[in-house]
Specification:
Elements: E1 2-4, E2 8-14, H1 33-37, H2 46-57, E3 61-63, H3 92-119, E4 123-132, E5 135-136, E6 139-140, E7 145-148, H4 154-170, E8 176-178, H5 189-196, E9 202-210, H6 212-215, H7 218-234, E10 237-239
Parallel strand pairs: 2-3, 2-4, 4-9, 7-8
Antiparallel strand pairs: 1-10, 5-6, 7-9
Helix pairs in contact: 2-7, 4-7
The protein binds zinc ion.
Zinc ion is lined by residues 16, 43, 74, 130.
Amino acid sequence: MNHFNATISFVVSCEHGGNHIPSVYRHLFQGCESVLKSHRGYDCGALLMAKALSKHLNAPLFSATTSRLLVDLNRSIGHPQLFSEFTRNLPPAAKHEILTMYYQPYRNRVEAAIANAIQCGNQVIHLSSHSFTPQLDGVVRMADIGLLYDPSKTMEKLLCWKWQQSLKEALPQLAIRRNYPYTGTADGFTRYLRRRFSMDQYAGIELEINQNYFCDNRAKWRKLCDVIVETCAGLFYYKD
Ligand SMILES: [Zn+2]
């Protein structure tokens, strides 16, 4: 019989799950609806992936469907891209309001769930689901799946290496890369959380999927989704 290791607690999150703009801020985006629908507005398909991971791993899911163009939940306070060009020049009080309403509650909920699992004696594996545009500023991205982590954290490094091997075996035709198209140590929610918890308590991995798979073909996406959740779960099974 297979079991998950009882001391491991999964947390799944999706910071860029939707492109909703609350009505009070909608005027800021007037005439720019196409940007909201683009990869800049949200991570197409990332929420579906997060739901699949959460279900299969029996993990709590934290997701946000407010557009990253209002405030980016995957950027730290003070980062130049925390606010987009649509919200950057708002008065400080308005920006504070956005942080209080849409940023802090989400970040605090995820952080509290992780702290709680650690307090119960578990080791937390946090999977943050994202997707990336196939082409950015004229450059074609040379990957289908990216696993982002901090190479100085032993558990993250080992997990991503093993996951990459399993994915390569299951999907030999796809390009599966580590720390691509971004580095796992760039500013993001996982980097923030790594500083809050020790590497024995917390491992944060960002899963990045090429949006080709979500936007072009739903059947292709479902297949990819299945393989991703199965290979991920397979890393943590033990047999007795
Ligand atoms: Zn994202």
